[in-house]
């Protein structure tokens, strides 16, 4: 099962990560990558670009968007056996980085079709 773990709280008041936290995060990323659990990870640019289609008309709007209250600022794509395992990995992540918020959503695709499809 694949899950997308998204960080939604950029905690912009927080101090920059220290060397110890960066080393611990590096070990966590290396461990999960070698185990084949971590498929991709990264941070996202603030704002981005919004694209919308309505009545055959495409609209493109550059961010940032003031109304975006819970913008995704980082992500990890993982492959695990269960939602519980995804939750445990998220707990480990937050035990390293400290305060923050995130969302966990299952990813469906050809190898993992959407339930009921």
From TrEMBL:
InterPro entries per the UniProt record, alphabetical: Dimeric_a/b-barrel (IPR011008), YCII (IPR005545)
Pfam families for this protein: YCII
UniProt domain YCII-related: residue ranges: 1-92
Domain of life: Bacteria
Classification via PANTHER family: BLL7171 PROTEIN-RELATED
Protein family membership: Belongs to the YciI family.
Designated name of the protein: YCII-related domain-containing protein
Originating species: Actinomadura syzygii
């Amino acid at each position: 099962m694949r899950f997308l773990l998204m960080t939604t709280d950029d905690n912009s008041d927080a101090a920059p990560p220290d060397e110890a936290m960066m080393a611990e995060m590096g070990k966590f990323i290396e461990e999960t990558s070698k185990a084949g659990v971590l498929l991709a990870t990264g941070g996202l640019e603030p704002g981005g670009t919004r694209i919308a289609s309505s009545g055959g008309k495409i609209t493109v709007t550059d961010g940032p968007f003031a109304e975006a209250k819970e913008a995704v600022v980082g992500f990890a794509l993982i492959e695990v056996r269960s939602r519980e395992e995804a939750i445990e990995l998220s707990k480990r992540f937050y035990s390293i980085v400290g305060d923050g918020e995130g969302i966990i959503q299952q990813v469906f695709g050809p190898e993992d079709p959407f339930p009921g499809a």
